[in-house]
Design brief:
Blueprint lengths: L1 E5 L5 H14 L5 E4 L13 E4 L5 H5 L5 E4 L5 H5 L9 E2 L6 H17 L25 E4 L3 H12 L4 E5 L9 E4 L4 H6 L3 E4 L13 H4 L6 E5 L8 H9 L3 E6 L19 E3 L9 H16 L18
Parallel strand pairs: 1-2, 1-3, 3-4, 4-5, 6-7, 6-9, 7-8, 9-10, 10-11, 11-12
Helix pairs in contact: 1-9, 4-5
The structure holds glyoxylic acid.
Length: 316
């Protein structure tokens, strides 16, 4: 069996080794063929493609493909580019080690803001009596209750923050307040001192956080975006930071990436920009998840029952 590997901007070698290793551990006799940069561009006869932002040519040439595995959690760009023929099912990664990393990033961003950590460091405070903020813990509101959002919510709860979660459809969390559907979004926002976006980007979530919605956040709220940039209307977020309603923003994802040099976020005094690093895909667990899924498929399990099966109508 042949498997095509397309990593585009992600480094090829660790993926090639990681996938080969996971396949051999899972007892899969498969040859992993890096697809990019091959000459001539003829079909290798791959049945599975493991891809990150693949070229359309892959699908024009490889006619034996049965399933496409996305080497990341988000499939928004894969679907937006419409390169994957409709007939081909797509499976994305579910957590695969990304969720704890993202939860760590979010909790650090919260701690940095609530404890005033930005006061310290070279050129900063050298004061043993510096204030130690001890007010009422802020409420953390997490948008998204999938593998990533729920891990972020659990991590924040572990640090004793009151946590609330909003999802598109209803979900019950025993230990935290849950909100569901657009009709409950405003009331969810009104009680979120930290708003964490962990939603996938779909038709429903694009521009979801506009001026009207962001204005519902309490005075001084802080927005953390680890989902996708296009869920937030940037001009609206900037306006609310400028007029003092919002206290700050920690942004890891952007509508255009890399964030253009002249983007106002770079120099905004209330904004921290990080270069889409909150949840890099860890190769080993991701490779194991894919190998396990292929084992299931080879046993005849329907692709639609795999965790991470992408419902194209839903957009994730
Ligand atoms: C990263 O952004 C991913 O989608 O995995």
């Amino acid at each position: 069996m042949k498997v095509a590997l397309v990593t585009s901007s992600m480094p090829l070698a660790p993926w090639q080794h990681g996938i080969a290793r996971a396949f051999s551990e899972a007892g899969l006799a498969a040859e992993v063929v890096p697809w990019e940069g091959r000459q001539p561009r003829s079909a290798i006869g791959a049945r599975y493609a493991l891809v990150w932002l693949p070229p359309a040519e892959l699908f024009e040439v490889e006619h034996d493909l049965e399933v496409v595995f996305n080497l990341g959690a988000g499939v928004d760009r894969l679907l937006a580019n419409a390169v994957v023929p409709e007939r081909l099912p797509i499976v994305r990664l579910v957590d695969a080690g990304m969720a704890p990393r993202m939860a760590e990033y979010v909790c650090f961003a919260i701690a940095r803001a609530t404890r005033g950590l930005e006061r310290f460091g070279p050129g900063g405070l050298r004061d043993w009596n510096a204030s130690r903020p001890r007010g009422k813990p802020p409420t953390v509101g997490v948008l998204g209750a999938g593998a990533i959002g729920s891990k972020i919510a659990e991590a924040a709860a572990m640090f004793n923050y009151p946590v609330r979660v909003w999802s598109r459809t209803s979900r019950a969390f025993a230990s935290m307040e849950s909100f569901a559907g657009l009709e409950q979004l405003d009331v969810f926002l009104a009680g979120s001192n930290f708003l964490v976006n962990a939603l996938p980007l779909t038709r429903d979530t694009e521009n979801l956080l506009d001026r009207a919605r962001l204005s519902k956040l309490p005075e001084g709220a802080h927005v953390i975006n680890v989902g996708r940039g296009a869920t937030i209307v940037d001009a609206d977020l900037l306006a609310l930071l400028d007029d003092g309603h919002l206290g700050g923003a920690t942004l890891d994802v952007f509508r255009v990436e890399p964030l253009p040099d002249d983007d106002p976020y770079w120099s905004h005094p209330k904004v921290i920009v990080t270069p889409h690093l909150s949840g890099p895909t860890p190769v080993a667990p991701a490779a194991t998840q894919i190998a396990d899924a292929i084992v299931q498929l080879e046993r005849g399990v329907p692709v639609s029952s795999l965790p991470g099966y992408v419902d194209r109508a839903r957009g994730y």
